[in-house]
Amino acid sequence: MKTLLNPFAAMIVLAALPIAAVSGTDDTIRVIDRDTTSTLATHRGHIGPARRVLLRNQLRAQRILKLHETACSLGYSSYRELFENLRHLDYKEIAKRGEAFLSQTEPAYSSCLDNVLSHDLGLNIDEAERSDAMYLLHLTKFDDRFPSRQILRVYSETMAGLGISVGAQHNIAIDSEARPRKNPRAFCMPVTIPDDVKLVIRPVGGQSDYQSLLHESGHAQHFAWASAQLPPEFKYTGDYALTETYAFLFNHLVSDRNWLEDFVGLTDPTEFIRSVVLARLVTVRRHVAKLSYEMRLHSVADLSGQAEQYADLQTKSTRFETSTAEFLFDLDDSFYSASYLRAWAFEVLLRDYVKTRFGRRWWGSPRAGAFLKGIWETGDRYTADEMAAQIGIGMIDFEPLADEFNSALK
Q1: What share of the chain has pLDDT > 70, as a percent?
Q2: pLDDT band at 194 (very low <50, low <70, confident <90, very high)
Q3: In this structure, are residues 396 and 408 in contact, taking their beta carbons and an 8 Å threshold?
Q4: How far apart are CA 65 and CA 73, in angstroms?
């Protein structure tokens, strides 16, 4: 996720709202079984205790209503209208395309998920809970193939194939030091684009650790290669879907058979790739439900009844029974879920483009690296849709994304 302060959210002053964060989640889930995962979910407030959940949701509700009030004070009819105007997007249309995506992927998704739940957890699909999704998404049984000691080497050699020497990139500072209470999940912080970009990681190993670093490295390279001559609005306030597309391009190397063989040494990655793709589809379908829910949440003055809407949409979309407790926690400001959905759709098209132009091992082509540097140099000057048109890809469509999932899971 692009780590930048939202200019609209910065207008809202929220004093002393003690919304708890869970630390160490990635470390913990990587080495535990289903029962322990369920217990952790309970203790973080997913199921209880009820009084703590109620208090936190009261505080979050105050924040949501303050966002709505401020949007109206700026002359907009709703928070949703503010961001549609700011981003020049039609969230209703994106949600409609998302619903079509759910329908297109439903047969393959339900069949594959049912098989995996039965094989790995002894459950049928109607018994699955949100905590089971947490367990499955981490794919812990493959973690020994992704050791922490190799992660920075894999990153460095991947970039070297594109003609990028990470050791010579003095504008990207990699913080890999293990410190107490340091979050294990990688993140990118563009302090001053392009001169000072932080790429932070605490290597703990496992495929999710590799995915996180590769994802954040896509952001880091985008920011680091942006032209210093760009005005601030084309460095810091662009279309989030664009930088997320670059992040997913590298993130999704972990489902590339050739890359896995060359960099991780997986000689028969078929089972792993299928598992990664299923986990990715869970996430995409979850964000379709998030967008539909957030559109409803940010279009009403009364939040009563929204908890049930949240739980129902998530349960139907993911097939994991979802509690109402997180209906004000599982949110991203400024409809970021729509940015993710557009980025997933664009990334499939961009990946196909670079494979066609530079070969199936595009990540080993300096020519591909030169192409990426060229589009990264424009920073955030273009939206994702404009960049797709600039490259010659055409309109960003969700159908190729659905086709890719259906083909991989059939």
Answers
A1: 87
A2: very high
A3: no
A4: 12
**Cβ–Cβ < 8 Å for 342, 94:** yes
Distance, CA of 323 to CA of 315 (rounded, Å): 9
Contacts of 282 (CB under 8 A, 6+ apart): 113, 133, 136, 137, 318, 320
Q: Does residue 23 have a pLDDT over 80?
A: no
What is the percent of the chain with per-residue pLDDT over 90, rounded to a whole number?
79
Q: 40 or 51, which is more confident?
A: 51
- What φ, ψ does residue 196 adopt, rounded to 5°? -145, 95
393 vs 346: CA distance, rounded Å: 9
Residue recorded with tokens 């929204």 = 306
Domain that holds residue 25: 1-410
* Cross-strand partners of 200: 175, 187
pLDDT, residue 122, reads 93
Q: Quick check: helix, strand or coil at residue 321?
A: strand
CA distance 256 to 87: 33
DSSP assignment string, 184-203: SS-EEEEEETTTEEEEE---
Query: What total number of domains does the chain contain?
Result: 1
Instruction: Give the number of C-alpha atoms closer than 13 A to the C-alpha of residue 21, restricted to the C-beta side.
Output: 6
Closest by alpha carbon to 387, among 190, 287, 238? 238
Question: What is the bridge-based pairing of β-strands 187-192 and 196-200?
Answer: antiparallel
CATH number at residue 371: 1.10.1370.30
Helix-strand-coil split of the chain, %, nearest 5: 65, 5, 30
Residue 29 neighbours by CB under 8 Å, 6+ apart:
37, 40, 134, 135, 138, 140
Report field, pTM of the whole predicted structure over 0.85: yes
CA–CA gap between residue 260 and residue 67 (Å, rounded): 44
Residue with tokens 């393959």: 108
Q: Residue 55: its pLDDT value, please? A: 78
Provide the pLDDT for residue 400. 98
280-298: string of b/e by CB count within 10 Å (b at 16+)?
bbbebbbbbbbbbbbbbbb
